[in-house]
Design brief:
The protein is an alpha+beta fold. The protein is built from 4 helices and 8 strands; from the N terminus they run αββββαββαββα. The chain has 2 domains: about 40 residues; about 150 residues, 3-Layer(aba) Sandwich (Glutaredoxin), CATH 3.40.30.10. InterPro entries: Thioredoxin-like_sf.
Length: about 240
C-alpha cells in the first residue's frame, strides 16, 4: 500500500552460524557381522530342510510302509517271499524269436504266470485272471504289467495271440527260471501267480489254483501293494 514499508523479516544474528547436527550410527564390529551372517545362513538352511522334508514326507512314508511296516502274513492272501529274490539275467526272446533283455521288465509291478506254449485250460485261466486283476486296479493299472513266461519251445497258438495284445509274453529258459521263481511244496511253477516289485524282486506268490475262487482277496493284496508304493512308484518306465 502507498506509504507503507515492506521488507523481509530481519534474520536473527547467528541463525545460520550454528553447526549442523549429524547422527553417526556405529558400524558393527567385524566379529559381530560374521556371527550375524552365520545365524542367517543356519536359519536359511533349516528352512530349506523343512521344505524338503515336507515334500519328501509322502515318499518316505511310502517306503516305510512297504519296507518296514510290511503287512504280516495273516493279513495277506498271497504268501510273502522272504528273502525277496532279485530277477536274474534270464535268457529270453519274444514270440518272434527276438532276444529281450529281462532287465527291461523292471520299473513296473509285474503279475506273472508261467506255462508252456501249448497253454492248457489252467494257463488260459491264469491269463484271463491276470488281465482282470490288472483292470481291477483302475487308474493304478498302468503301474502293473501282466507277464506270461513261456518256459518251453512249444509255439503259442495263433488263436490265443489276440487276447495277449496287452500282455508281455517272453519265452525263457526253464532251468534259469527255476532258479528264480519257485512253487509251493507239492506244486509246479505253472500252478501259481507271482508278484514282482519294480526293482525286479520276486516278493509274493498266490496260492495254487485258488485265484479265481478268492479273487477278492487277490485284488485286496494287489490294491494294498499299489497304495503302499504310491509315494515312490510312478506309472510307466523311465525313458
Amino acid at each position: 500500500m502507498p506509504g507503507s514499508k515492506s521488507s523481509s523479516p530481519a534474520a536473527k544474528p547467528g541463525a545460520f552460524d550454528q553447526p549442523l547436527g549429524l547422527t553417526v550410527h556405529s558400524l558393527p564390529e567385524p566379529r559381530e557381522a560374521v556371527v550375524v551372517d552365520a545365524q542367517r545362513t543356519r536359519r536359511g538352511r533349516w528352512k530349506m530342510l523343512a521344505v524338503l522334508a515336507v515334500c519328501a514326507a509322502p515318499m518316505i512314508a511310502s517306503y516305510f510302509t512297504y519296507y518296514v511296516v510290511r503287512p504280516e502274513g495273516r493279513r495277506n492272501y498271497g504268501e510273502l517271499v522272504e528273502p525277496q529274490r532279485p530277477m536274474p539275467a534270464l535268457a529270453a526272446t519274444d514270440l518272434a524269436g527276438k532276444p529281450v533283455d529281462t532287465a527291461t521288465l523292471k520299473d513296473q509291478w509285474l503279475l506273472v504266470s508261467v506255462a508252456g506254449g501249448a497253454c492248457d485250460a489252467a494257463c488260459e485261466q491264469h491269463l484271463y485272471l491276470q488281465r482282470q486283476f490288472r483292470e481291477s486296479l483302475g487308474r493304478e493299472k498302468d503301474r502293473m504289467d501282466w507277464v506270461w513266461l513261456v518256459n518251453d519251445d512249444v509255439p503259442v497258438r495263433d488263436a490265443l495271440k489276440p487276447a495277449l495284445q496287452q500282455a508281455t509274453v517272453l519265452r525263457v529258459d526253464g532251468a534259469q527260471l527255476a532258479q528264480w521263481l519257485a512253487p509251493a511244496p507239492g506244486h509246479q511253477l505253472p500252478d501259481h501267480l507271482y508278484v514282482v516289485d519294480p526293482m525286479g524282486n520276486w516278493m509274493m506268490r498266490f496260492p495254487a489254483g485258488r485265484e479265481q475262487a478268492d479273487a477278492a482277496k487277490v485284488r485286496k493284496d494287489l490294491d494294498r501293494l499299489m497304495r503302499g508304493s504310491a509315494g515312490w512308484d510312478k506309472p510307466g518306465r523311465p525313458e
